[in-house]
Amino acid sequence: MVEQITAMLGLLGVLSLLCQWIGWKLRLPAILPLLLCGLIIGPGFGFLKPDEIFGDLLFPIISLGVAVILFEGALTLNFKEIKDHGRMVTNLVSIGTLITWACIGVATHLLLGFSWEMAMLFGALVVVTGPTVIVPMLRSIKPKSELASILRWEGIVIDPIGALLAVLVFEYIAVVADPTAHVLHALGYMLGVGLGVGAASGFFVGYILRNNLLPHYLKNTAVLTIMLGVFVASNLAQEESGLLTVTVMGIFLANMRDVDISDIIEFKETLTVLLISALFILLAARLDSDALLSLGWEGIAVLGVVMFIARPLSVWCCGMRTSLSRADKWFLSWMAPRGIVAAAVSSLFAIKLESLGVEGAGLIVPLVFLIIIGTVVIQSLTAGPWARFLEVNAGKAQGLLIFGAASFSRELAKVLKSKNVTVTLADNNWDNIRLARMDNLPVYFGNPTSEHAANFLDMKGIGRLLVISPYRQLNPLVSFHYQDLFGSNKVYGLTHNEEASARHRLSESYQKSLCLFGESVTYAKLASLMAKGALIKSTNITENFSFKDFRERYGECAMPLIYLEEGKVKIFTASDSELNSGIELISLLPVESQELAKAQDEKIEKERTLVAEQATLANEDSEQSESEESKMISKET
Q1: What is the CATH number of domain 1-390?
Q2: Which fold is adopted by the domain 399-532?
Q3: Residue of 172, 78, 147 whose CA lies nearest to 390
Q4: Are 368 and 123 in contact (CB under 8 A)?
Q5: pLDDT confidence of 403, banded at 50, 70, 90?
Q6: What is the pTM of this model?
Q7: Distance in angstroms (rounded) separating the CA atoms of residues 244 and 300
Q8: Disulfide engineering: 155 pairs with which of 39, 131, 443, 550, CB 3.0-4.6 Å?
């Protein structure tokens, strides 16, 4: 039996990784291959039967997994960031959540005959969307930047809010189901433990992080371990209060001042692949196909209410007195796929409610999975054509993401920003990011390939990547990541100007991307030129001042970087040699080019002065001769 459990755990890990890769390769939400895999090896062929294999271990596995999911989601709920992203996001995660909850709860009660308590619990479970399903869909659809931002931030913020709502409803049901306890007293005690212990533990962890009481390599592990310990302790103090406790703990930690949790949030990537993905396969394998089919047309009708009534009503009510057009609102009305949070929390609650003997608990999980399957599959297939029909697709993205925020990148970004070109600087170096912020430039601090970046790096209007950083090991990873996102011809890097050994030679596609600004332009060369006083300047190339004239004025050492032509941003690469007229050229002018241009200006000024002096002398001679001639005429007269 032990060998069977070990084999199944290993298989879950392998299948999780495979499904994540398939989702990445096909540009689909990973939840689709995970769901399909779980259904095939579970109810399909009966190969994986979680309840039989894991037995009493199943509940602790799901319980701890859900605790991790809710805690990590709560870490992203920074109240300041909600305010920074517009009225529409704030409305959707507050008023919109209540409208959706009420619509789904009433429909479930009327159509499926659920009790009001179970109907409202189901409604609370399926109000959440989540970035893990929204972000892959947005990458393939590419809607307008403001719509993408609204959907992305709604998914991030509503995860912990919806989960917190579901926890509160569940705790009310669990207390009501206990005839030996006074309902209000028990529920109040449960809320007190959850809120009190959550806030206290969040402050405790924040105090440790703020004062650097742990070595850096222990921070992620310590926070995860403390969170799990708090979860267990809270459940021991008051049954069923642990989920509320860890959610409050994460929210409290996310909103503490001077506490850096970026590394902890980034740690979620490993947990997502190794824990959450395996958990989702496990949950799908537990799905009772007979229970799913028993929902019948009533279940389909509830799905219809979720997609065609609850979401549109929520969006149109929240969109009042905003700048969104009718087309924008209709697009947002069709984009609300459900994800892993709904599946995980519903499975956990179903197990607990079944143990309490609550009627209808066995139908919660099949109904939640029906909503997940319906929303993800239908909206993934139809959102693209719907966006094109409404004409809410973004135009060709002309903006630039620059990886590396050193002096050269900052000066280039300032010039581009002055030309109304969207540009964002990303860097792991805090000093570079701080200086860029002082220049009022959009920045992202951290690894731009991380899941944290996928959620928080604002990519609206950005369609190309310039790798201008000294991080030799990270540069290829960033390039490969964004070649998949933008296309191989939209990623540019600086050459190394040295031969790599066969062992360390990288792919041909990466080598082709190392053509930025010319064949011999390296990061060291750019940094050296900037340190010596090089300037980045914009020059109009016209018929009267051609690129040849530009070369004559500034010399061959002048380095073309980027040029703007008819509203399009084009990158100067090693394959470019000549530039046409009618463009605005942004170039790097070393000190030699500046001195050459200055010498030419001085020469021109001297020539102008000489011509002016000669003209003055000629005028004086002319005036003198005219004066003498008038005198002669006067004498003759």
Answers
A1: 1.20.1530.20
A2: Rossmann fold (3.40.50)
A3: 147
A4: no
A5: very high
A6: 0.69
A7: 31
A8: 131
